[in-house]
Amino acid sequence: MTTLDHPPRDDAAHxxxxxxxxxxxxxxRHCAQEQEPETVHIEVHLPGRLDPGRLRxxxxxxxxxxPRILMREAPGRWYSxxxxxxxxxxxxxxxxAFLPAGPHALRDARTRALVEAPPLTLSPPIRLEVVEGAGPxxxxxxxxxxxLTAGGPTTGRHVTVPAxxxxxxxxxxxxxxxxxxxxxxxxxxxxxxxxxxxxxxxxRILATAAQLYxxxxxxxxxxxVRPSPAADDEPAPPETDAPSxxxxxxxxxxxxxxxxxxxxxxxTELPVPRRPKGAPYTVNDQLMVTTALTLAxxxxxxxxxxxxxxxxxxxxxxxxxTDMAIGNGTRLVEVPFSHDELRADHTPLPVLLRRTAERTxxxxxxxxxxxxxxxxxxxxxxxxxxxxxxxxxxLRRAAGPWTSTTLLSNIGRIPYALDxxxxxxxxxxxxxxxxxxxxxxxxxxxxxxxxxxxxxxxWSRALLSHxxxxxxxxxxxxxxxxTQEDAR
Length: 488
Known about the structure:
Helix 5 (about 285-300) packs across helix 9. The chain has a single domain (about 10-485), classed as 2-Layer Sandwich (Chloramphenicol Acetyltransferase), CATH 3.30.559.30. Strands 12-18-17-15-13-14 form a six-stranded mixed sheet, with helices on both faces. The protein has nine helices and 18 strands. The chain has about 500 residues and is of the alpha+beta class. It is globular and about 65 Å long. Helices cover about 25% and strands about 20% of the residues. A hairpin with a 2-residue loop joins strand 17 and strand 18.
């Protein structure tokens, strides 16, 4: 797992503490690209306003309460065996910025979150931007710089799903249009350099800041208990068609690539899918099946050669209290789906849900290094880190065809109230997005707040356009609805 918090100075050495890069950080550092920065964006919507001075004080105090986040990449020589983080006494940059409101304020803030990664050479490698009086939570505009699209009600191309009656979905609430007379609130944009930190770690920092700012209890709630199969549950049929782990997985079929580099982003809000009482699968399993069916449908529409799908799923075993390990703390597992079992005429949806639940339960229970044993071997400090960087980049390119089809990162129910107290209020929407570099080219990130599911689709512009993203959103909404209507 990731390195735990450390004090910022080593009294014995009379200098800053240095921490070798963990495996995840080193691999990410090797493969960094300016065209598609490895950023994670967190977007938190509050009903009220924040006092700039109080927020800056609370956020910096929260950083000091979790000193592992106050770090920068230490300078090294070409023959150094490792990259190292150097912990600092405090922030070296102004980490909180209040931005003027305007008709494109949210769009522009999302754009910066995708194209401008906080530098690793200055502590901390995050930034918090605050847009007050922003009004719309989600826009319908596209940003030329990154193909940014924000979602609302389903308005894309018509969705036709063979062999499955099209249900009447629950109307999607358009976050762009608040209720008449509703006060305009505040949106917090937390942008993270993913080489250093992940979303759950920085959400923990934000929860600490919220408690310091408003004095309200932001202790984490207990995570939901995964349902265990009942003794009388019908087991899923044998997996006679489970794909080989060595099979070359499907790629997301190319839609309409856009000429400029970078990522596009679409965010939307949907109802959290219902599960039948006592169902042996979780909402995460429903989201996994939804993602697989969405991409299988997309690939059929675009004439892609039938191949099995593999979906990368981050697993986070860390606690969510103030002792949470700060850094990149998730491990990655891959959930496989054969081509045939994603056809409605071959595998009924209830069977697919139970089968997926068995797979994810087994994968989560297996002990495994964060990026697998091969990555641990690749980052062993036996030769200069610059040599390992060249080797890692070469192997990444060579292994591109065997990279998983996509990544589904389900943050789940936000465990913190994110309550900033009187005047600012409690978060009513939280979106995350994960990097979407090729060869995957598409990631799906979900979180739930206040009984609503907040979905972010992020894609490489070398693969898809904002129109493609809107169509994928329509497919995702359709299949998510199907998992609760047809899986009874």
